[in-house]
Please model this.
Amino acid sequence: MARTLINVPKAATAGEVVTIKTLISHPMETGFRPGADGRIRPRDIITDFTCLYDGEPVFRAELFPAAAANPYLTFTLRATRTGTLTFTWRGDNGFVQTETATLTVT
Amino acid sequence: MLAALATGSAGAGEIPPAEIPPSEIPPAERRSSFDGMSPDIQAMQRDADANPGLLWLQDGADLWSTAPAPDRPACAGCHGEAATAMRGVAARYPTWDEATAAPIDLQGRINACRRRHQGAEPYAYESRELLGLTAYVAAQSAGLPITTPADARLGSARSAGRALFTRRMGQLGLSCAACHDGNHGRRLGAALIPQGHPTGYPLYRLEWQGLGSVQRRLRNCMTGMRAEPFAYGAPEFVALERYLMDRAAPLPMETPAVRP
Model:
C-alpha cells in the first residue's frame, strides 16, 4: 500500500466550491532512465486518477511519464450534499489504490 | 579546550562561546536556505498537504510503534510518545555516545537503538525505514532552535568538522567554506549558494524526487567539488554534522524541509 495524504475540508455549505488535495507516494519511474546496472528501468507510473462523489465521477486525471514522483493533485468540486469521496489511483504493474473520505455539507 | 577535553565533563546547557570554533557568519546573520527559495517551493514545505516529506513521516510514525519482533520492544515501548520523548532531541545532535565513546549522529543513534535495545539489524543508510524514523524523530523538534550541547568530549569532533569545512578538497581545489562562508547569496549556475545550514534533514529534494539525509546532501556537495565523498556513516561526516549544527545555531529546525 502506498502512503497517501488527502485533505478534504471538515465541513462545507451547500453549493460551496471546495478544494481537495491529494498526495500519493509513488516513484513515477519514467521508463527512460538507466538504473545502477546501466539497463533501462521499466516504466512504473500512475496513469489514471479519479474522484467519485457518492459514486459519480467529479474529477479525473491522466498522468504521463513526465510527472514528478509522489504526485500531488489538487482540484475543486461543488459540495451539494454530505457524501463519500472515493479516490482511486491506477497505474502500471496492476497498481490500484483506493481511499475514501467524507465530505460533510451543513 | 584541551583542559576541558581532559576533564571530559558532560552536561546540559549551552557551550561557552570560546569552545565553539569560529564561523564566518555571525549568529544574527545566519539564514536557512528556506529564505532564498521560490515562493512555490516555500509553500510546498509549509503546506501540510503538499509536503511530500510527510509521506515518509507516516512510515516513521508506524515504525516508532511497531515491535521489530514479538519479544522485542517497539521504540515507543521504551520511549513512549515521540512528541514528548523526542522533542528537542534532533536540535542538539550529533552528541556523545557513551557505549562507543565516540560522537554519534541521529541516524547512528537510531540504528544503535535497533542493535542494542531491539536486537535487530540496523537499517541501511537512505533506506525508507531509516529516513522515515529519522524524519519522524527530527520533526518533533520542528520550530525549536538548534542548540550546541556543552559536552567537552565533542570538542575534537567540533574542531575536526571545522578543519574539514575549511580545508580544500577535490580536483577543483575548493573548500566548503569557499562557497558557504565566502560566496553565499551568489549563484552557481541556476542554484543559489546557501549558507549551508542542515536545518531541515532528512528533507525532500525535488532533484532527488525523494527524501534524503544530510549525508546524502554532503556527498552531493563533495561530488560537485570533484572530491571522493566519505562513506555513509563515516566519522568525518559525523564531525562535519557537529560543526554544521554549531555553525547553524540558533536557527529553528524545519524537518521535513523541501529544497529544489
In short: The domain at 29-260 of chain B is CATH 1.10.760.10 (Cytochrome Bc1 Complex; Chain D, domain 2). The interface with chain A takes residues 48-50, 52, 54-56, 58-59, 206, 209-210 of chain B (CB under 8 Å). Chain B is about 40% helix and 10% strand.
